[in-house]
Amino acid sequence: MNLVLTYITWALRILEMHAFDVLGDPVRRRILELLSESDDDLAAGAIAGVIMAEFGISQPAVSQHLKVLREAGFASMHPEGQRRLYAVDPTGLREADGWLGRYRHMWTSRLDALGTELRRGRKASAYKEKDR
Hints:
By secondary structure, the protein is mainly alpha-helical. The chain folds into two domains: 2-90, Winged helix-like DNA-binding domain superfamily/Winged helix DNA-binding domain (Arc Repressor Mutant, subunit A, Orthogonal Bundle), CATH 1.10.10; 102-132. It contains seven helices and three strands; from the N terminus they run H-H-H-E-H-H-E-E-H-H. The chain has a three-stranded antiparallel sheet with strand order 1-3-2. Strand 2 (75-80) and strand 3 (83-88) form a beta hairpin. Helix 3 (26-37) packs across helix 5 and helix 4 packs across helix 5.
């Protein structure tokens, strides 16, 4: 009974996890990078091989990270024979983007201004080169 309660508590905590809680872990961010860089879905074994080599964690630990990504809406999985294939699920990313949207105005104008200054700098450099 105690094990069941522990699992239920853990499962509820995962469901309540905010997108940034999920993305706060470097292993999960790396898994998402691997998934986003691939043109095809990736097998869990291939993901585990890379993550185990880079982070020195066990295969069951990689499986737990994949599970968190799935349950939080960042990754999807479908079985193909004996393999489990993973792909990016944009649901979790949309949640993160939605939250960031409230603050985007704070940096958008600054980035636009930076772009303007960079263009001015290029033009000034081009004029100086012509004068030589």
